C-alpha cells in the first residue's frame, strides 16, 4: 500500500508545471524515504531530478517500493481539477495499475477523487556523479528567470561566466548583444534577495536558452535558485522546495565547435 498526503496540493501542481514541457511521461519511484523522479527530456539534452522526502508529507506510507509510470499531461489535467488550497492524498495498492488522487477543500465541504491509469515505462536510471564544482551561484529565482527571458531575445545561447568580480550572463545574435552582470550582495534581513558566489576557479560556459527558459518554470517553487558549474560538466540548476525536497535540472554545455 502506498499513501501520501500533502496539505498543499498547489506545491505538487507547481512541480508538474515546471517539468511538463520537458517530459511527456515519467516514473515516480516511491519508497519509505519518499518520492523520486529522474528522467531525460525527449531530446536527451537535459535531465530532470526530483526528490520529495517522506517526512515533508503530512502523512506518508509506502509498504514496498513502487514505481508509478505516469503521463504528465494527464496528471496535469487531474491537478487542474484541484483548488489552490486543497489537500491532496495519493493512493495506490501494491502492484496496482491505477493511482487515485483525492482532493479535499480547506473547509472539508468538498471532496473529489480521480483515478488515473499507470503506464509501464522503460526508463533507465542514470548515475549522477558527485562533482566538485568550480563555481556555485545562489541568486533570487525571479531575477534568474528575468535575465534568461530578457537575453533569450538576443540569441539562442547564453554564456554564463563567473569570476571573483561576480557572474555575467551574455547573449548575442542578429540584433546585437546583451550582457547582465551581478555582483555579490548580502541581504541579511532578506536572505532570499542575496546573490552569493562560491568560487574555486573562474568558469565560462554556453547553454541553450530554450532549456534554461524551461527550467525557470520552477521559479514559483523557491525564492532562490542555485547554479553549479564546472568545465565539461553539466550545469545544475536547483530549486529547493521548502520542507519537502528539491527539483534539479542538469544541462550539458554547448561545445564551441557548433558555432563554426
TrEMBL record:
Pfam families, sorted: PCNA_C, PCNA_N
Molecular function in Gene Ontology: chromatin binding; DNA binding; DNA polymerase processivity factor activity
GO-annotated biological processes: leading strand elongation; mismatch repair; regulation of DNA replication; response to hydrogen peroxide; response to methyl methanesulfonate; translesion synthesis
Keywords: DNA replication, DNA-binding, Nucleus
Cellular location(s): Nucleus
Domain Proliferating cell nuclear antigen PCNA N-terminal span(s) in chain numbering: 1-125
Lineage: superkingdom: Eukaryota
Entries under PROSITE patterns matching the protein: PCNA_1, PCNA_2
Keyword Protein transport: no
Domain Proliferating cell nuclear antigen PCNA C-terminal: residue ranges: 127-254
Predominant subcellular localization, coarse grouping: nucleus
Cellular component terms per the entry's GO annotation: PCNA complex
InterPro entries tied to this protein: DNA_clamp_sf (IPR046938), Pr_cel_nuc_antig (IPR000730), Pr_cel_nuc_antig_C (IPR022649), Pr_cel_nuc_antig_CS (IPR022659), Pr_cel_nuc_antig_N (IPR022648)
UniProt cross-references to NCBIfam families, sorted A to Z: pcna
Family per record: Belongs to the PCNA family.
Function: This protein is an auxiliary protein of DNA polymerase delta and is involved in the control of eukaryotic DNA replication by increasing the polymerase's processivity during elongation of the leading strand.
Name of the protein this chain belongs to: DNA sliding clamp PCNA
Organism expressing this protein natively: Dendroctonus ponderosae (Mountain pine beetle)
Gene name tied to this protein: 109534066
Amino acid at each position: 500500500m502506498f499513501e501520501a498526503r500533502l496539505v498543499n496540493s498547489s506545491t505538487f501542481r507547481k512541480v508538474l508545471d515546471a517539468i511538463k514541457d520537458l517530459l511527456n511521461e515519467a516514473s515516480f519511484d516511491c519508497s519509505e524515504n519518499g518520492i523520486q523522479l529522474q528522467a531525460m527530456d525527449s531530446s536527451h539534452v537535459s535531465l530532470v531530478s526530483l526528490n520529495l522526502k517522506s517526512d515533508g508529507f503530512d502523512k506518508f506510507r509506502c509498504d514496498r517500493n513502487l514505481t508509478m509510470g505516469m503521463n504528465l499531461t494527464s496528471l496535469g489535467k487531474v491537478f487542474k481539477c484541484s483548488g489552490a488550497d486543497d489537500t491532496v492524498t495519493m493512493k495506490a495498492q501494491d502492484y496496482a495499475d491505477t493511482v487515485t488522487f483525492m482532493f479535499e477543500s480547506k473547509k472539508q465541504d468538498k471532496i473529489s477523487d480521480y483515478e488515473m491509469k499507470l503506464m509501464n515505462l522503460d526508463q533507465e536510471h542514470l548515475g549522477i556523479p558527485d562533482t566538485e564544482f568550480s563555481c556555485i551561484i545562489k541568486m533570487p529565482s525571479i531575477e534568474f528567470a528575468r535575465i534568461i527571458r530578457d537575453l533569450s531575445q538576443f540569441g539562442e545561447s547564453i554564456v554564463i561566466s563567473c569570476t571573483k568580480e561576480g557572474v555575467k550572463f551574455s547573449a548575442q545574435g542578429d540584433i546585437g548583444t546583451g550582457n547582465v552582470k551581478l555582483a555579490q550582495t548580502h541581504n541579511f534581513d532578506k536572505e532570499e534577495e542575496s546573490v552569493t558566489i562560491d568560487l574555486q576557479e573562474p568558469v565560462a560556459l554556453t547553454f541553450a536558452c530554450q532549456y534554461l527558459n524551461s527550467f525557470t518554470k520552477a521559479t514559483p517553487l523557491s525564492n532562490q535558485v542555485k547554479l553549479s558549474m564546472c568545465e565539461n560538466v553539466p550545469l545544475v540548476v536547483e530549486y529547493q522546495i521548502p520542507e519537502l525536497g528539491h527539483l534539479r535540472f542538469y544541462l550539458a554545455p554547448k561545445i564551441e565547435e557548433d558555432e563554426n
